């Protein structure tokens, strides 16, 4: 702690008395302090090396032998700092003054405002000339007189200790450190709100982690280097950094699972058992009737079970597997052209059916366009429409190019 103060010292020297009438009525003098005796009052807990007052100012001397000396001094005293509740902390620093050479019998050191019978002075420092600090508020400045005995000597050694209690002003640290840290910490929750397809989940998490690291380094520069205690704000930043690191790990796992496909990974048997058999029963859920695989078709439940059939290009075009599918699944209704062919094969022929069949196709089969619309899933149909659109656009572009070439040749 660095303090700029005046050390007011008063003492009586019986050898420096005189009669004013013998010296022309002079009752007060200003003499150089190094020309008279003065007590060697030093700061015991000095951290700078200059234990004494370095500026030799003049002392005020009256005819009764009372000497008043107020030298200015800049002290750097050692102070134990407790940063556990930083920046909402209250620090107490001590300034211990005493004589370096004389004991208590030769120099009886006392505070000038000390009341007889007590060693405590509530206001030990005059704060009338105190300049308000932009970082600290002075709470109290009591002074206590101590008499300490050592084993080597019988006489006491006296010192006066000033206890300076200070409270840190928190506005600067609240606006520039605490609020940004809390805001960045709350952004961690948004990582789980981002969709996996956005591709910014890991980037956001790493950016938050780097921001917290910067604030932690800033905190380490502000507080004094000590290993006795870690401030609560530092613990909060460390805990948040650990949570952000865990969120990055979880995000990586989620993205890994999200972008897995049947062509790159195979689902483990225990995953199928847990998520497809056990959990649906516990949550009273039913499996959907539609299959996500475009090469398979989900049939309606028959005899408390579901059936799937894989369609091939040969089945699509000719429908030769329809009777076998009808025999395999019994009363199950199979969607698509093969199912219709199987139903037509099993149903009795009537005149109306024969006439309708003959009008559809001479060979007794549905037109290819109708078959394509019947046994393809919606995803495949949309893909086919896109392919037709691209082919049509390419054909029109080629026709336009050919017409343009003909016009150019005709011009030449």
UniProtKB/TrEMBL annotation:
Membrane-protein topology: Multi-pass membrane protein
Biased composition (Polar residues): 355-364
Start and end residues of each stretch annotated as Disordered: 345-371
GO molecular function: acetylcholine-gated monoatomic cation-selective channel activity; transmembrane signaling receptor activity
Main location: membrane
Family annotation (InterPro entries): Neur_chan_lig-bd, Neur_chan_lig-bd_sf, Neur_channel, Neuro-gated_channel_TM_sf, Neuro_actylchol_rec, Neurotrans-gated_channel_TM, Neurotransmitter_ion_chnl_CS, Nicotinic_acetylcholine_rcpt
Descriptive protein name: Acetylcholine receptor subunit alpha-like
Organism: Caerostris darwini
